[in-house]
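Q: Second attempt. The first request was missing the SMILES, so the protein and zinc ion are both included now.
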Amino acid sequence: MKAVAQPQAALAATRRCWCGASGFVPFGPEYGECRTCGTLVYLKDTPPEQLLVRDDETDFYGKKYWLERQQAAFGFPDIHARSRNDLPERNLHWLRALLKYQPPPAKVLEVGCAHGSFVALMRQAGYQAEGLELSPWVVAFGQETFGIPVHVGPVESLDMPAASLDAIVLMDVLEHLPDPSATMRRCLQLLKPAGLLLVQTPCFREEVSYAALVESKDPFLGMLIPEEHIYLFSQRSVTELFRRIGAGHIAFEPAIFAQYDMFLAVSREPLEARASEKVESALMAAPGGRIALALLDLRESTRQQIESLTRGLEEARVEAAQLRENHASAMQQIQTLTGWVHDARADAAAALESMHSQAAAHASEVAAFNGMHESTVKQIETLTGWVHEARAEASAAKESISSQAATHAAEVATFKDMHADAVKQIAALTGLLQEAREKGSALQNTMEEQTKAHAAQMAEARASYAALSDGMEKQKSADAKQIAELNGLHTSAVQQIETLTGWVHEAREANATLQSAMEEQKNAQAREVAALQGLLARPMLKFALGLSNIPERVRGRLRSGTADEPR
Ligand SMILES: [Zn+2]
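A: Got both inputs this time. The predicted holo structure:
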């Protein structure tokens, strides 16, 4: 109001709480918390006459308070709107509490009734209710609007008998009072001993700091209204206030604006809470009460609907939060899966590339194998040709060997024949030799006897011997030639046999045997021939040839020196 701005410390020094204490803990720029009772106190002094409205145009709670300040400072609807809106809202809430502790019929005063709608509702419900306001303008407004009796206050100056009221209601009034203790004492004076005070006022929570309120944007901060709200009680301090003035029975009821208000029933005597049946029957007793009951029923059902909807909303919020969480989780899963899909695609692309390169490598391998195959086929063809050639050669060699074997067999047969002939000749010659030896022996004997007789004939013989010696020499060389020729033939035959022996393995041993036999025979034959030749060479034998008694057959053979057939 008109108070001079002073530093808080200075304010606190001069200021006293309703409880009489003067120590305050700073609470925001203009309030302090009473260290004694816990009430939040507007630290500037407020003159008691603030509640007086002598000039409705200029005083604090005059006409402008209702038509301008409430709208401009706090954004409330104007008094015309409030007079309509409060009825189905806070007025019904208050009525329910009043009915509980003081049902009609009862005489009730509303201190600070504003436009008067609650007074009107109380009257509708069956109370003998009246109002009180500071501004004559607003008093007239209530009277005209609702046709209710309204007094001009303050209550201290109200002309009313003491102990004449059953109840006094003070809604949003206590915090405005410069001396709440005095005003409440005055109310109790007007009340009957068991009379009821029904009070709605802001609720200061002592445990919460100003900084915490600011930080949480607590709606209670809206109750810190300098000049207007002088005392903001806590449950503890309001209890102390009423205890001090002898009203020690207090029941805290649910406040309609529970986020920053409290609502209490107070009495000097124990409070009696009526059952709802009693309240209903009290209301049913009068037509107006029935209307009020209908309004209360409607409000109750609305309240229940609102509660149900609020619960539904809270559940929906929880559900929405869950859904948001699920959505976030799902999004995360989708992101993960998308990542996997990308990875899988990349893997597939890499695999495809690898397959392509493998296919290319495979194709080149196949080409290489095809080349190798062609080369192998050619090699096989060549080898097959070689095999055919080898077979033909083998066949030819076989034929050649067969023919050679046949030739050899024929030669062997020939040689066998020759051998047989030779054996026969040898046998014949052996016979002849024996014969010749015998005859030779006989001849030797004869010759020895005749040696002496024929000595004379020696000279003649020597001459003949010389001539014969010549002839023998000639004959000797001719014989040597023949022997050489035979030896040559023999050597050639041996070579042929050796060659044949190489070709035919089986024949080789037989042939070798035969060959050796033949060699032996030949040698024997040669020895025989040589022996014969040796005999021929003898001069005495030559001489014997001249003898007439030697058969011609033998003589011829002796001359030739050969082994002709004996037969
Ligand atoms: Zn105090």
